[in-house]
Amino acid sequence: MAEPSLARLSALFFGFLLLLATYSWVPRLHSGLLSGTGVQKTLGPDPKLRVDHSSAKPHHPLDPLTVQEIERVRTILLDHEPGFGSGSATIHSMALDEPDKTLVVKWKKGNRLPSRRAEVLALSVGQSHVIVVDLDSGRVVSDVVNPTSGYPILTMDDLIVASQVALKSIEFNRSVEARGVKLSDLVALPTFTGWFGPEEEGRRILKVQCFTSQDTPNYFMRPIEGLYATVDMDKLEVIKIVDKGMVPIPKAAGTEYRYNVQNKPVHMDRINPISIEQPEGPSFLVEDGHLVKWANWVFHVKADHRAGIIISQATVRDSETAGEPRSVMYKGFPSELFVPYMDPGELWYYKSYLDAGEIGDVSWRHSEILIPNADIRESRPKVTLVARMATSVGNYDYTFDWEFQTDGLIRVTVAASGMLMVKGTPYENVDDLGDKEDDSGPLISENVIGVVHDHFITFHLDMDIDGPMNNSFVKVKKYVAKTEKDAQIKLSLYDPYEFHIVNPNRKSRLGNPAGYRIIPGGNAVSLLDHDDPPQIRGAFSNNQIWVTRYNRSEQFAGGVLVYQSHGDDTLQVWSDRDRSIENNDIVVWYTLGFHHIPCQEDYPVMPTVAASFELKPANFFESNPVIGVAPIFEKDLPVCRPFASS
Amino acid sequence: MAEPSLARLSALFFGFLLLLATYSWVPRLHSGLLSGTGVQKTLGPDPKLRVDHSSAKPHHPLDPLTVQEIERVRTILLDHEPGFGSGSATIHSMALDEPDKTLVVKWKKGNRLPSRRAEVLALSVGQSHVIVVDLDSGRVVSDVVNPTSGYPILTMDDLIVASQVALKSIEFNRSVEARGVKLSDLVALPTFTGWFGPEEEGRRILKVQCFTSQDTPNYFMRPIEGLYATVDMDKLEVIKIVDKGMVPIPKAAGTEYRYNVQNKPVHMDRINPISIEQPEGPSFLVEDGHLVKWANWVFHVKADHRAGIIISQATVRDSETAGEPRSVMYKGFPSELFVPYMDPGELWYYKSYLDAGEIGDVSWRHSEILIPNADIRESRPKVTLVARMATSVGNYDYTFDWEFQTDGLIRVTVAASGMLMVKGTPYENVDDLGDKEDDSGPLISENVIGVVHDHFITFHLDMDIDGPMNNSFVKVKKYVAKTEKDAQIKLSLYDPYEFHIVNPNRKSRLGNPAGYRIIPGGNAVSLLDHDDPPQIRGAFSNNQIWVTRYNRSEQFAGGVLVYQSHGDDTLQVWSDRDRSIENNDIVVWYTLGFHHIPCQEDYPVMPTVAASFELKPANFFESNPVIGVAPIFEKDLPVCRPFASS
User: Residue ranges of region Disordered (chains A, B) (predicted)?
Assistant: First the structure.
């Protein structure tokens, strides 16, 4: 898979990001945190491949807001209380408010689009607003204030400003300098730590932690342990400075990761260049910027400021029924990310790429010797289409892959890379630690503890097998889940269940209901008590599989307003309503996890680790759907002559 | 990954297979089972790429027996009682009897090879013989009769003869014809069903089941249910014919899988040809036919009649210590395969290919925006080397991949494909079944039940972290397993352990012991009671991880003589000896499983399903070992111009 390439999908998304960049930036930023110029330089594809989106129009009901629509929403809000015009209210996020599912399902190309609406999360004098703006009529149609606990997703401004506030504090500066760190090397990183305790209720707080970038770009490996400031983001004041005393700052040597400054010999034979080639070009088409057509699949794909990548209306053509397009999944996206002891709500992609491409493997093979006089060696290629989003979220870098196979299988893979969040320590050797083990994690370099952590990503999978209604969730073959509490699933190797979403109204010729099966891959679970505050907020990670009744407002598994929320609007809360999920419109939630006890190989950067799950057709097709797909023939691959082996 | 390609590894193995073919065939075989000509035609690479092995010599202590050595063993045995010369004894298997580990570890290229020995499993008048022949002295050095219950692996002759015996039975023929099946369409398939019951003790039995190949090559989908014959392989007589009455034979329509006779339109846009290209050729070298050198890895690879593919002496070079080659794994191979309700001991590869190649992905990435005026977008390619063995074992086709990454990780993947073993039934629709469910499995086509089954493969992983001795098995960070019973591990998501093999005598600069971690992927477990006879024989699947003390005779987890064994020589038995495994020479066993409830998509052939696990360095290196590895640069990939997207 090529690195951020210049496919049209990328261009589309870069367009969106560029827009975001121009929309909300403080242009000149404090050194050590962000440079507006720096952001511009790191975003965007090669200038000659940029696409101008300024006059783009929506073509599909699910297409994201266009540049013009975003501008229009801003204009409409200028007249809306409380004071967007006066600047006392700020827009924290804006995205398409998707039309009702029934309208989207009925819509066909050529029809008028349903009304275009935007959902805006805003903040005004400490109050959260969830606002819907109707673009067709030009009016605000609803504005709900503080529907739940918590605040909207943070803006870039929030982060920048919080750091600036801390850095204006003389006491803070003194503490930094007392540690031998120059202010010009200081990186003040805002972090979210969710549950602050009663004295901080009712205020929007951020914790600012410090790192030094002296002699390295990898400041993450040079934490200034024991010093942080708590900042009120709205009053723009420092509430508290905590200085626990000096902890040695880990050295810069060995932290450099830029290839062009590496200077140690690598004892490894050269790996020759390798690429995946399609001499006749790729096999997928993208219509109107978002509709992807490949092999027997069609799906809508878009970037989203919160979800990253959303796949919608995935349908697959059935050769048994003359190519009838059949519904599989209405909407799928990573709904929430929980990295204990960090926060949910970190789905904040300020640097993301979309990429797509095809990869090749073997989908089926068989050789046969028991047939007289036959030379049977059959195989089918497995070429899959991958829609990948790569993103950097501070120290971590993630990729989210939605992989489509011609046999109807969808594989979702999350890979994590980047670098660890580490903690400084006085220790330089495990012998110094002796029996007194650091609770946070193991020593991975001198003075560096790799903090043990997990990553949980809960995916929202609105499965619509042969249609939105008439779906059920079945454990094994016969046990149909009736209500939501029946479908709070903790996976166990010793539970022999398979988990299927079926449409009992559509039966195969043999009488099996059409369905898809959820196949877990490697996984990990949260070990926090369900009552632990972070776990209450991250309650969507209590189970690996959940099934809820479709409800358009139930999208983000940690709630709409996640920041400093109390966990009153999570997937656990919705599921506990115990609604009927039999023969209905249901949504599956799958939680994928990685448990990570760091080791020295994760220093100074972490190699990619990946986990995945699959959605596989089970009695959806009448028989194996790819038996008629052509093998790859030598004559089709004339381009490169193999180099003779030595 | 290309289909059976023409790498030198393949050529080597084909050479071995061709030898096997000439060695033991009955040239003219009954129609409907095997044709000697058919076998010849399906084996072997393109004639112009064949390698002549007739004068090959061994170069490494672990190199498999050469053509000349095999001939020599046969000659030596001609004079050995009981009667190999007279034909009353038959050779069931022959392979290198590997030299003692200490000799192999000490050996260096240029030294004399340790004595070459062959281990022969033979049968003579119903007695099993485990014979060791010393090639240097030209003598039989040991012959142990019936060391345990069970018989040696079956030969092609056994299978052919058993079928012939059944087909000579008039009663049997009548039953076949009574079902409307022509004898010329009959495929008589020998199957192994392990536990026969007391009346069959002391005899070598085979069960012959019938299928019809009328109008299709996919006879597996046309079982003649309810009829089988039990045959005594040594007396060459039918013991019993079971005819439970007629069950409809599933139709031929829809079973064809050969691409060139497919006639239904496939509603799918064309997928353009795709290949993985290395314009400068592959990066691996193979020395002396078996020693693979790639990037920072060296390992010995060979085909084995029983294990399929064996990886030995895998070492990785450490750039921190000037390229010092460090031992990781002494020997790794799939030790036993258990497919309840089928037998262990089915590791009988009569059609296997070895293949190797490189594949590309991303090993690490990071983008950084918080550094002023920097444009940081770093990534490292992940090009891995895969040694793959593809094999057909009757209806199933497996691939076993050993994948090596430059960061020291080894990934083992097993993929299953081919077609299901099915059962005939009168039913054509699930409604006909009603509440009365077929215990064997679900309906996947008219009159076809897909039998529910599992596949368990236990891998033998003789980990030698920085040397053979001084290894320990650690759960989490501090709990070191002392004896074998401490290391009988049932995986559970709710057990937060990590599992490491460490060398406590080799510590990193921080004091962490050098180690490798076992990372499970998706898995499944056997649901049979531990007391169930098949589970006693397949007891190696009771746990997902085991660790035993190195013992050269403990290689095959179901025992040496698996056929009709009683489970007296399995991994469970060895592990229950509870030997000390702390700071010693230890072996890890990993059981990987797939649970398969068939569905219509598995008919008439099964798409590939795969499962894997990883062996990942943990404090083995001082820090991330690939940070100095070059990214892939555009200029290195000049060969193919991308086709412009439409």
Answer: 45-64
Question: Can you read off the two tokens belonging to residue B380?
Answer: 């490292």
Residue type, A4: P
Q: With an 8 Å Cβ cutoff, is B439 touching chain A? A: no
Interchain contact A381–B (C-beta under 8 A): yes
**Best mutation target, B266, B428, B494, B616, to test chain A (most A CBs within 10 A):** B266
| Amino acid present at B387 | A
Residue indicated by tokens 């009757």: B394
3-state SS record for B533-544: HHHHHCHHHCCC
- Whether residue B67 contacts residue A402, with contact meaning beta carbons closer than 8 Å, is answered with no
Find the angle CA(B606)-CA(B607)-CA(B612) to the nearest 5 degrees: 115
SS3 content of chain A, % helix, strand, coil (to 5): 15, 35, 45
**Among A322, A544, A600, beta carbon nearest to B512:** A600
Helix (H, G, I), strand (E, B) or coil at B234: coil
Question: Is B285 within 8 Å of A646 when comparing Cβ atoms?
Answer: yes
Instruction: Please give the DSSP secondary-structure letter assigned to residue A251.
Output: P
Burial A18-30 (b: 16+ CB within 10 A, else e): bbbbeeebeeebb
Q: Kindly tell me if the per-residue pLDDT of B68 is higher than 70.
A: yes
Which helix (H) or strand (E) is B93 found in, with range? Answer: strand B89-96
A366 touches chain B (CB under 8 A): yes
Query: CA dihedral defined by A336, A339, A340, A341, rounded to 10 degrees?
Result: -120
Helix extents (H) in B373-443: 430-433
Chain A interface disruption, residue of B510, B591, B621, most A CBs within 10 A: B510
| Active site annotation includes A257 | no
DSSP state of A254: T
Beta pairing class for A472-475 and A479-480: antiparallel
A426 in contact with B, Cβ within 8 Å: no
On whether any CB of chain A is under 8 Å from the CB of B634, the answer is no
Among chain B residues, CA nearest to A372: B35
State the complex-level ipTM.
0.79
Q: Determine whether the interchain pair B493/A524 forms a contact, defined as Cβ–Cβ distance below 8 Å.
A: yes
- Tell me the helix, strand and coil percentages in chain B, rounded to 5: 15, 35, 45
Q: Collapsing DSSP states into helix, strand and coil, what is residue B67? A: helix
H/E element, B175: helix B170-178
Is the overall model pTM greater than 0.90, yes or no?
no
Helix (H) or strand (E) holding B286: strand B285-287
- Give the residue from chain A lying closest to B279, CA to CA: A640
Q: Which of A250-264, A507-521, B81-95 has the highest mean pLDDT?
A: A507-521
Q: Is A168 on the interface with B (CB under 8 A)?
A: no
Contacts of B59 (CB under 8 A, 6+ apart): B109, B288, B289, B290, B291
Which domains are seen in chain B, by residue range?
A: 67-145 (3.10.450.40), 156-245 (3.10.450.40), 286-332 (no CATH), 384-618 (2.70.98.20)
Query: What's the pLDDT at B28?
Result: 23
B396 is annotated as an active-site residue: yes
* Beta-sheet strands, E only, within B165-248: 186-191, 205-212, 223-232, 237-243
| φ and ψ at residue B643, rounded to 5 degrees | -70, 135
What is the rounded distance in angstroms from the CA atom of residue A344 to the CA atom of residue A591?
A: 13
Catalytic residue among B97, B232, B318, B355: B355
Tokens representing residue A191 in the block:
């972090």
Contact between A416 and A608 (Cβ < 8 Å): yes
Alpha carbon A156 to chain centroid, angstroms: 18
In a mutagenesis test of the A interface, which of B191, B211, B255, B271 is the best target, namely the one with the most A β-carbons within 10 Å?
A: B271
Question: What pLDDT, on the 0 to 100 scale, is given for residue A541?
Answer: 87
Q: Sign (positive/negative) of CA torsion B579, B584, B587, B590?
A: positive
Q: In angstroms, rounded to a whole number, what is the distance separating the alpha carbons of residues A558 and A569?
A: 7
Which is more confidently placed, B19 or B640?
B640
